[in-house]
Amino acid sequence: MTVVSVVGARPQFIKAAAVSRVLRATPGLREVLVHTGQHHDDNMSRVFFEELEIPEPDYHLGIGGGTHGQNTGRMLEAIEGVLLKEKPDWVLVYGDTDSTLAGALAAAKLHIPVAHVEAGLRSFNRRMPEEINRVLTDHVSDLLFAPTETAVQNLLREGIPADKVHLVGDVMYDAALYYGEKAERESQILQRLNVAPKGYILATVHRAENTDDPVRLRVILEALAQVHREVPVVFPVHPRTRKRAEAYGLEELLDRMLTIEPVGYLDMVMLEKNARLIATDSGGVQKEAFFYRVPCATLRDETEWVELVESGWNRLCPPKDVESLVGCFLNVWDGALIFPYGNGRAAAGVATLLAGGGILWSKNVF
User: Which end of the chain is more exposed for a tag (fewer CB within 10 A), N or C?
Assistant: First the structure.
């Protein structure tokens, strides 16, 4: 059996690292890895493959840097070529990026079954490109691997047949458990930045709703710059965010905090584990904050990870004004002890379902 796995962005590299390790250890299963190139620079791509020990991609399409339409269209054409050559039994896609949608559509149009890891997430905000990607992907998928019970219910409410939906847990939790100890052994990022454990705030910003809106981006950067006077702010700046800040004339705000280039996965894990608070608009970082029991201020109007808000670990802090955002960053809290993402064996559930042709050995593999 051949499975073509499509990845292209940092969160997908992390998920694929957990799943690929199990797929390649499953007898009778061959994985072909396709990297679209959506995240194409070394800090956003190469270092993740090296640190996560992901096999070298069988195909590197080199597609990235364009608009959503340009990226999706070019990826769709290139992935179709790979699928026609490889003739896989399954196409496996992850998350909610342009790479996800392109892989799913290319497979569906060729009548190749699609499996979607991290299915069923919903922000209910159709202005987000990621929301469109995940909804469309779910509705052309044949196997939907849901990370939480909430995700399962979202899919069932949308009329997706129950026999396609499987609660396996979150493969990012698998990765957090596997790589957390490795980061402790190998990362020297705290020493290099000269920051103390629990003595800084970690910030990440990359979503279009924040970076493409000059008002929202200014509010975020001004709030972080103000907070930096009291608590150091470590800010690995996404290429898109830096480009937009320069276009809007906000570079001086970046200069008023500890900005660094994007870091590898192990360094990011160490920064997350040791932060006093994490401020982010990333869905993956929200979860990683929870895995390491660090409070998270989410720079959005809504989140797909409703369990984290309900438990108190995550707070929605929409960037509407500087004063309220500063208050959110400086008010550290604790949440309730919950375990919504399984037992760290989600990847095993994914591999078992694929190898078994969709016949689940246990409806709930938690």
Answer: N
